[in-house]
Description:
CATH 2.40.50.480; three-stranded antiparallel sheet; alpha+beta; single chain; 24% helix; 2 helices
Amino acid sequence: MKKPILVTSIGLIVIVAFSIFFYNPNKLIPENPEGKSRFYTMIGNDDNGEKLGDNQRYKYTLEAFDESGKKKILTFNSSKQLRKGAYLELYVASFRGVTYWLEVEFDELPEQAKSIYSK
């Protein structure tokens, strides 16, 4: 009876030790790009954002491209209506979606994104 309890206890200790060793709280900070994919998009003339209620939030669903030019449809919220013609860098986490965005200049886009948006 003592052997299964001992094995279970050792297993839990190993799991906790690995969790502490590999856990990095910086990955949870939304604006930290570590562990997230970066996508790039542009706010077009028709992208007004869907107003969410009376709380001055806007929901955007846009085509975005990663550094290799792979297209993905992404949805994110903003506390303000975004400027038409603005280029955005989006930080995308696996399970949480877009966690952070910031406006960038055209020159800051990767080459693949520049070629897509310069057309």
